[in-house]
Design a protein that fits this description.
Length: 501
């Protein structure tokens, strides 16, 4: 419920925002600098949406979460909201505050620091790995890449991690591996935390530490990225684009080291590719019509990797789709889009009736393929699609869930959106934090992001080259069938993520 139309001063709004932000971060309001970037406080989607909700209740009108990044500190945001509040009182504004991010020219963003180029051309590929550097070790895919490297190589793995000291860094890595059931105490000495930050110059590592790594590493696995369905390009650029540039800097410095970069099939989200078959080695020059900030950063970051490759740096590029749980243990990333959608729609009692194909790939297939392909000399300079080779219709998932006893209704997408707006008003439903992603309208046709993901608007991602490269490795992508759904459901229910009535 919105309150009645009433204007509020910038001071009143500022006090509210300070109170809400302090509560979200569990600190005192006087510890917050009203001129400091909100991004520097590390707000996640849930905290950002909670801040927006509380503000809406006071102001009496909808506040676009995009405002949080157009006016990136409390002082500027309070002033802007006070203006909107005054406009609303005088009825200059009618209903919803809509803010569109300005279109970023992604091709102009794809500029790699000219000093980043291999200092020597003496790289000799060898399958032996003694020391590797890995980003994303506290993430879902990163945990399984660590497991693969531990089992398939003898390398010590230097893992970038944000922490106050080495002990905390090691604990974070250990807890992440434990969370996904892949921690093995015997391998502990080979997992070495490197304190840093993906969004900072030299990855937040000291100059000496950065140079020492650059001189001694045999390979770099760059799987880290800030994934957020609400943030625009500007809020994700430092981590996803500039972080990739710093990884390429490390790879080029002193000893030339191959970079195994985890990209995404999202780089082909431009409508130019709709309905077309896209192969692994095809160019990806079209970016117009990519609206999701995360996808925009992945397009630019991969362009930087391609530029580095053209300058002589050995690289392999791995493009997964949405990554699903482990095909054997069922362990899932319950913070990912698939899990949140399923839980949220179950709470609503309905799913949208949409023509989607589920092309998710189990995390064990993706991690095994990345590590195997990275160790083949013929992989250098190539891209690989870790897309599921046999996607299934979204409706197959619904049918299977119904057979499992979940009472589900399929409703037209616009009706489902209306229910999302009118009935999902609590952060208890995970879809609440995704409302900007699910409802914000883009493009000349005023389509939502999910509209843009309909099968007719998506490319057909070929993975034939990748399957050929994996032939003989015994690495096969598990089928998306009732057995896989059962494995995932058992984990989600047993872990308490899903409740069966």
């Amino acid at each position: 419920m919105m309150t009645s139309k009433k204007s509020h001063t910038a001071e009143e709004i500022q006090e509210l925002l300070l109170s809400q932000l302090a509560e979200a971060l569990k600190i005192q309001p006087d510890e917050i600098d009203i001129r400091a970037s909100l991004d520097s406080y590390g707000l996640d989607s849930t905290q950002a949406m909670s801040l927006v909700t509380q503000t809406e209740k006071l102001l009496g009108f909808e506040v676009s979460p995009m405002l949080l990044w157009h006016y990136p500190n409390i002082e500027a945001l309070s002033q802007r909201l006070a203006e909107e509040s005054e406009d609303l009182k005088s009825e200059k504004q009618t209903s919803t505050t809509v803010v569109k991010t300005t279109t970023v020219d992604l091709s102009a963003e794809a500029v790699l620091d000219p000093t980043i180029r291999p200092t020597s051309q003496s790289f000799q590929f060898t399958g032996r790995l003694d020391n590797v550097f890995l980003t994303g070790g506290t993430g879902f895919l990163g945990a399984f890449i660590i497991q693969e490297l531990l089992h398939k190589t003898h390398a010590d793995i230097y893992c970038l991690v944000r922490a106050a000291h080495q002990e905390e860094g090691k604990l974070k890595l250990k807890q992440n591996l434990q969370r996904y059931f892949v921690w093995e105490e015997e391998f502990s000495p080979r997992i070495i935390p490197v304190l840093g930050d993906l969004s900072k110059p030299r990855l937040g590592i000291s100059t000496e530490g950065f140079e020492m790594l650059a001189a001694n590493l045999d390979a770099i696995y760059h799987s880290a990225a800030m994934l957020n369905y609400v943030y625009p390009y500007s809020a994700l650029k430092a981590a996803n684009v500039l972080g990739t540039q710093e990884v390429l800097r490390m790879a080029s410095l002193y000893k030339v080291k191959p970079v195994h970069y985890v990209s995404s099939v999202a780089i082909f989200e431009s409508p130019v590719y709709a309905g077309k078959v896209v192969k692994e080695q095809d160019d990806f020059d079209h970016w117009e019509g990519i609206f999701l900030g995360y996808s925009q950063t992945k397009w630019v970051a991969e362009k930087l990797v391609k530029i580095a490759s053209d300058r002589g740096l050995p690289v392999t590029i791995h493009r997964p789709p949405l990554i699903s749980g482990h095909s054997q243990t069922g362990v899932c990333n319950t913070d990912d889009f698939i899990s949140l959608m399923i839980k949220g729609c179950l709470a609503m009692g309905c799913f949208p009736d949409v023509e989607y194909m589920i092309d998710m790939s189990p995390v064990d297939y993706v991690s095994q393929a990345i590590v195997y392909l990275s160790r083949q000399k013929e992989s250098l300079g190539k891209a690989f699609h870790l897309q599921h080779p046999q996607p299934v219709s979204f409706k197959k998932l619904i049918d299977w869930m119904r057979s499992f006893g979940f009472p589900l209704e399929l409703v037209p997408y616009d009706k489902w959106q209306a229910q999302l707006v009118n009935n999902v008003s609590s952060v208890d439903n995970p879809l609440y934090t995704l409302r900007p992603f699910l409802l914000e309208r883009w493009s000349k046709e005023q389509l939502t992001i999910p509209d843009l993901y309909l099968q007719a608007k998506r490319p057909i991602i070929s993975c034939q080259d990748t399957l050929n490269a994996l032939a003989g490795s015994s690495i096969v992508c598990p089928p998306i069938d009732s057995q896989l759904f059962m494995t995932y459901s058992a984990y989600l229910i047993e872990s308490g993520f899903l409740n069966v009535v």
